[in-house]
Amino acid sequence: MPQPTVGKVAQSVSDTVEMYYAVNTRRGCVDAESKNYNFQANVDDKSCQGPATNLSFGGVFQQCFQISPDAEPLCQALAQKNPDTGDYSCRSPYVSTLLRSEVRQEGYSQYECHDVAYTCYLVFRCHRKVCGNNYYMRTARVNTYWCADKEEAPENSGYLFGGIYGPSLVNPITKTKSCPLYFTPVKFLSEGLMICVSNDYEMATAYSVPFGGLFSCESVNQLAGNKRRCPAGFSQHLATVSDGCEILYCVQSGLFTEGQLLPIHLPPFTLPPLIGTTGGSMVAVMSEGGRSWVRVEHSKTWIEVKPENVVNFVRQLQQDSGNMTAGSKAGLTIGIICLLALLAVGGMLLVRRKRGVKRRKTYEQIDGEAQTSETAVLLPEEEAHIEA
Fold first, then answer.
1. How far apart are CA 79 and CA 142, in angstroms?
2. Mean pLDDT, to the nearest integer, of 338-366?
3. Which UniProt keywords are listed (predicted)?
4. Are the C-beta atoms of residues 136 and 311 closer than 8 Å to each other?
5. Are the CB atoms for 186 and 197 separated by under 8 Å?
6. CA-based R_g, the chain, Å
7. Considering only CA atoms, which of 34, 49, 39, 55 is closest in space to residue 232?
8. For 378, which DSSP code?
9. Which SS3 state, helix, strand or coil, does residue 185 take?
């Protein structure tokens, strides 16, 4: 194995091991004598001391930007306005913080027909309609923000926090994949997570927990001095791993610690590339990290194409391939064979016809000579008598 390849494999293994330990690190208070003790924690985060302060939460919102021109359905499903403002913004005095920026891809197929011109019968241009289910990828960028007030907020301000749940995550408050009573689910990130918020202080307070902010591999926690940790008196909990990036949220220490130990998170921690084929498996398309590659069937070479040009590039390949498809090659071969056969048969007939004409002419000459011999040929004796 080449040395550069060995180095790349070793680096990949090292990165995977580091990611495994990072994802399964649970920071919190490890002092069993503290009221903030978190038996789920395996690393101390100095949250054993200090009460949880009243930190206000101003909601979340996320914007979606199309990378490929066909990504509008994807953005319609992922864009989320802040319920507090009805827009992609935070209400004053809250400040927005970018929690995560991710590229989201979605594969889809659609039945398409288009005209393909190709060479047929040696010199002619023929047309045929090609139909099939073509596979494409739509790509968009999703930016998720959350709103926080860096200062200690007054009572009954902002949103109450009611937990997070998703397709593979149970809400620790309800023990189900749902929000508590009087809470509203709001889209959070791009993998189906929901964050529960409420401003019904009278009815929903009993089902809420003190909230200490959010942070990720790309973002710091405003409520913890702009550091990647929770404030004093709060413990961090893993919301999800977004394509290799941890998303964590903070609640008051001592909460969410009952029950059994949380399961170990196993690889993979990144999304696999999307690979699809067009109708007839003629073209393969792969997209990863905002980049797209196209490969023609039976070829080992991938051609990098801009995401917005994938559709036109695939159609051009289909048109080029139509110039000499397997069917046209077979038709061309059969046409040549038939032409040669016709020429051979025609040649044989021509030769036979010439021979027949020659034989008929020879027979007529012999017949004429026979008739002449009966009337004009003299015997030797008669010839001598005449001469005498």
1. 8
2. 67
3. Disulfide bond, Glycoprotein, Immunity, Innate immunity, Membrane, Signal, Transmembrane, Transmembrane beta strand, Transmembrane helix
4. yes
5. yes
6. 42
7. 49
8. P
9. strand
Asked whether the predicted pLDDT for residue 381 surpasses 70, the reply is no
Of the candidates 272, 244, 332, the one whose C-alpha atom is nearest the C-alpha of residue 20 is: 244
Q: What is the pLDDT of residue 384?
A: 41
CA distance 19 to 120: 58
Token pair, residue 35, equals 């009221």
**Phi/psi of residue 170, each to 5°?**
-90, 140
> For the residues of 244-282, what is the DSSP string, one character each?
TEEEEEEEETTTT--SSPPPPP-S--SPPPEEEE-GGG-
**Polymer length of the chain:** 388
Tell me the mean pLDDT in the region 33-41.
63
Pairing of strands 43-44, 27-28: parallel
pLDDT at 353: 75
Task: Give the pTM.
Answer: 0.62
Please report which confidence band the pLDDT of residue 79 belongs to, taking 50, 70 and 90 as the band edges.
very high
Check residue 74 and give its pLDDT: 94
Q: Which two tokens stand for residue 259?
A: 């029950």
Is 305 in contact with 313 (CB distance < 8 Å)? yes
Strand partners, 288: 291
- Is-contact 182 203, C-beta < 8 A? yes
Strand bridging mode 234-242 / 245-252? antiparallel
Which range is least confidently modeled, 86-90, 180-184, 210-214, 278-282? 278-282
Q: Which residue matches tokens 């994807």?
A: 74
Q: Letter for the amino acid at 127?
A: H
At position 55, the amino acid (one-letter code) is L
- Whole-angstrom CA distances from 195 to 60, 91, 96, 161, 209 are 9, 18, 16, 8, 13
Structure tokens at 155: 């009572």
Between 66 and 138, name the one with better pLDDT: 66
Return d(Cα 55, Cα 157) in angstroms, integer: 9
Burial per residue of 115-136, b for 16 or more beta-carbon CB atoms within 10 angstroms, e otherwise: ebebebeeeeeeeeebebebbb
The rounded distance, in Å, linking the Cα atoms of 220 and 99 is 8
CA–CA separation, 100 and 217 (whole Å): 8
